[in-house]
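Model it.
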Amino acid sequence: MTVNVFGAGLAGCEAAYQLAKRGVKVKLYDMKPHKKTPAHNSENFAELVCSNSLKAKRVESAAGLLKEEMRQLDSLLVKCADKCAVPAGGALAVDREQFSSMVTCVIKNHENIEFISEEVTSIPDDEISVIATGPLTSDSFSAYIANKFGEHLSFYDAAAPIVSYDSIDMEHAFFESRYGKGDGDDYLNCPMNKEEYEVFYEALVNAERAPVHDFDVRDPKVYEGCMPIEVLAQRGVDTIRFGPMKPVGLRDPKTGHRPWAVLQLRKETASGEMFNLVGFQTNLKFSEQKRVFGLIPALKNAEYHRYGVMHRNTFIDSPRLLDADFSVRNDKNIFFSGQITGVEGYMESASAGLMAGINAYLRLLKKDTLVLPVETMMGSLSRYISDESVTDFQPMGANFGVLPALDDRPRDKSLRGSMYAQRSLESLRNYLLDKDI
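Modeled.
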């Protein structure tokens, strides 16, 4: 019993693990280390190319609920994330190198997984395959998918810079989480007064951007979840001050007042040697990033471990192509998983890989595949990406809006979250009682 898995990102590793733990021989293909996309740096699997945050931990939140559902299904990625966590207030953030190294070690040392370093350009006939090549699918395989399955879409994505902690001017920065959440030192805040912010804003909106290669620049689609800070800023002088640079819930201990604007930095590693500029995904030229971001007082002498970059993301028109079990409607031996299906986010991607892996196993045994209950976050997301009534299809992350409405919806937001979570996890437990997976 053998299944092909194409792509060793978050979704591909999760799919391969779910198959292998069930005794299935897996051929896992990835073009690393011989070839990398512009956004990849490491030779390890499950590389986090954007933020190191996996979103909220609280099960009463949409993102936290998704991760708890995955825990109930023995997710490899969530287990590794829990072991590699770094302080991030209410979020589950990870030491990205430790995380990807741990996932790579599990996958490469599993007796049922054979890793093949090779760029895939086609899908073999009469074999069960999981396509998890992600939003950075190579040009050649992208062209093959477009030819075989029809329309697919592209949009832009961007990554934020990472700076050295030692280079941050702590005379103009302070540790604190908004409203005192977390341990109090989960975020490093870089405050600005009104005059400093206005100088920074003018420089940002007029800064020179890097050329974008391998895109259709005539009709760019910038996905809202990773909007470059300079693009967001062009919507108005206060847009980012009420977005990534919002100062609410913070007081500068030097002044005792709330700053006019704040850039928050988050630890990239458990040691705290590197910090990520939260919400500062960018496509500015490297020299411009150093100049413009250096106008933020705390970053005037910042040393960059990684500058922000912009890259292409590709996803298929899943509502026209896939069923809710992630299989192709007109070829049930082919499964798609991960962000290429239009789920948005690290854990959303891994959850799609989890389900595609389980369902590929069931297909191999000629059993009915699984579609989790609509009350669950995973079940609702799988239905969204396969809903033919969705015409203007765009990526979707975990949110309570995709779930069925509560019978007695309370006004209190935290109580609503608790009720959604309780209903979901109870529904998931009952659904899995008689499933032999």
